[in-house]
Structures are given as structure tokens and as C-alpha cells.
Specification:
18% strand, 153 residues, 4-stranded mixed beta sheet, 6 strands, alpha/beta
């Protein structure tokens, strides 16, 4: 779903008319509420961030007001909350990376075999530590497609 050109709520409704069993959500704000509104009665949401509510966004407070959970508290305190029969897992990143070590090896193997690929934004090239600030600004601009990479020499 291209959130810049399509109505995300309408598209989710079209693609999953019975609701979502699970959602992976890292935007917060309006997108978090859309995901919550489309979860099935016993659906699960794994929060991995809330970037629309971060301080870099001049509309962060407006975005924070657009969902019925405190995304910051949920994330930073790694809370698991119930919303009716739905379960919301805050900061769903693993705490013990040893527990996902096998997954890392599997994903890297699939990458080496060419079965998956990494999408890297190629709009601008960032080289050296002195370009990190510009790379972050570019990443937060909403113009990127894929990961933003800073090459360290």
C-alpha cells in the first residue's frame, strides 16, 4: 500500500475485509490507529517504533493524539497491553538477540542464495561520518525507498 497515494484504511479493508490477525507497526499516529481499527477481535499488534511521533516531526503532537494508546509509553516500557481481546506488544524487538541468532543465519543464507534482496535507497550517496546528519535528514524526509546507507571509509 503506497500510503502517499492510497487510502490505507480503505486498502486494508479491501485486502483484509475480515480484519487483520496480526500487524507489524512502526509508524505510530494515524497509521497505528488504522492498524488497531483493522485488527480482528483477537488480533495482535507488534509495535516496532512510532516514527511519526518522534520529535523530528513538527506534527508529532498531532500524530500522538490520533491513536488511543500511548505509543511512547508502550514502546519505551516494552508494555504488553490488552485492548478488549486484542493484544498489543510494545517494542516488539527481541531483548535477547541470541534467541534470534538462527533467524539471522537463515536470512543471510537466503540473501546469499539470491532468494531475498535488500532494498537500498539510491537517491543520494552518503560517504563518511560527516554525512550522517544529512543521511538521517534524508531518511526522515519520507522520500526514501529502502534503507539509507552511510559508507564509512
Amino acid at each position: 500500500i503506497n500510503y502517499k497515494e492510497e487510502d490505507v484504511a480503505a486498502e486494508i479493508g479491501r485486502l483484509a475485509p475480515d480484519g487483520l490477525d496480526a500487524a507489524l507497526e512502526g509508524v505510530g499516529g494515524t497509521m497505528l490507529q488504522i492498524a488497531l481499527d483493522h485488527l480482528k477481535k483477537k488480533g495482535r499488534l507488534l509495535q516496532i517504533g512510532y516514527i511519526s511521533e518522534y520529535p523530528h516531526n513538527p506534527d508529532a503532537k498531532v500524530e500522538s493524539s490520533k491513536n488511543d494508546v500511548d505509543a511512547s509509553d508502550l514502546f519505551w516500557n516494552s508494555k504488553t497491553i490488552q485492548r478488549g481481546e486484542q493484544t498489543i506488544y510494545g517494542n516488539a524487538w527481541p531483548k535477547d538477540y541470541g534467541a534470534v541468532a538462527d533467524c539471522k543465519a537463515r536470512v543471510l543464507g537466503l540473501f546469499e542464495e539470491g532468494k531475498i534482496k535488500s532494498l537500498v535507497d539510491d537517491e543520494e550517496e552518503f560517504v563518511g561520518l560527516e554525512s550522517v546528519t544529512e543521511a538521517i535528514q534524508h531518511m526522515l524526509s519520507g522520500r526514501t525507498i529502502g534503507k539509507v546507507v552511510v559508507r564509512i571509509q
